[in-house]
Fold:
Amino acid sequence: MFDFVRQHKRIMQLLLVILIFPSFVLFGVDGYQRFNQGGPVVAEVGDQSIHQDELDQVKRQQGDRIRQQNPNLDPKLFDSAAFERQVLENMVNERVVQLAAQQFLLTVSDEQLARYLATSPELQAIRKPDGSVDMKQYQALLAAQGLSPQGFEAKTRADLVVDQVLQTVMASDLGEGLRSAHQAWMQQRSIQWTRIDPQSFAGQIQPTEAVLKAQYEKLQSRLKTEEAIDGEWVAFSADDLMGQVSLKAEDVRAYYDQNQKLYGTLEQRRARHVLIAVPENAQGDALKQAQAKAEAALKAVQANPKSFPQVAQKQSEDPGSAQQGGDLGWFGQADMVKPFADAAFGLKKGEISGLVRSSFGFHIIQVLDIKPGSLKPFETVRPAIEAQLKRQLAQQAFAEAAEQFTNMVYEQSDSLDPVIKKFNLKRQTFKGMTRQTIQGLPPELLNPKVKEALFDAQTIK
Structure:
């Protein structure tokens, strides 16, 4: 018997895989981890250890299961080192798959588990004609395997997670590549080599004139230089006209006066109000009732200014501020409708207005605080204003001059001197530009269209 095992190791290993691995799947990964761990460590997978006692117990259970399925097998087979090694390898494989499932956060939902159990072939024999499971037979079947319904469902859930890992690996179609890589990694090669330096033979070669000429003819395509262009260019923009525009002092001052908000901060105020809402086009009784209500609120806050927040909370019809005692926070004059802003910015700190009518209704306003505006002195911002106005004038002048520039270039295409003199431009040059490289041009001209124009046949002519 053992001679056969020794002589047919590959066959026996395949047989053991066929017999053992399905029983591992049926038993479940979690089942092995519930064993008491003891004895020396025989394998480690990640942060988990497999102890000798655990291996012995699993080996006994696997032997019992295989003998039940195959009574004619020689019992001595299960005491062999090959069987123990195969059991250990399967346990390691199970732990590796379980670790992969944990790392990739694979789970099985209750719905997935229920669908699987509803179609599981393991439970086919105990299903009723309507497809439901006979619970008594279900419990008896599990008890015969030493499992409770909860334990079986937990085991099944773990097995489904393992299946996710295995299906992913099998679907990846990397098996042949991995096997080839592994074989190459494990193989060894013995080689011999020597280095031949061509320079060591240079003195032995004496080419004739004919040989050199023939080689030259052969390599002509590689020895040709690229067509290259030397040229000069000018750039014309609004910046070139900046020095030609002039400003009047009164224009600079007028711009400052008209745009003071650009050079400082405007006054801000913090206020609270009571709003008695009424449509802008209200008339008759509706308008009278709203005005009467507003006048009553005004009398209340005038009699006792400290009661303003309470009056606002009870009577104000502004949903955004009523609960804050009518507080509107900080605002500028342009942030409010004109009647409200005029009244608020005409009051002193702490003062209460009369009734103020706006498109929203009747307001009663109290100023809580004031932040004065600030303005940068004219002389401080004058250089910036002058630069901005000059740029604007230069842009206007450029729009007119650009057409004249273009016409001069086309009309006197043999030289750039006329436009350089007319617009006081700077002559710039480039050398050795080929179709493959653009040398000497600034970044704004590094464009394929520029190269295409420069190598146009008419341009070169």
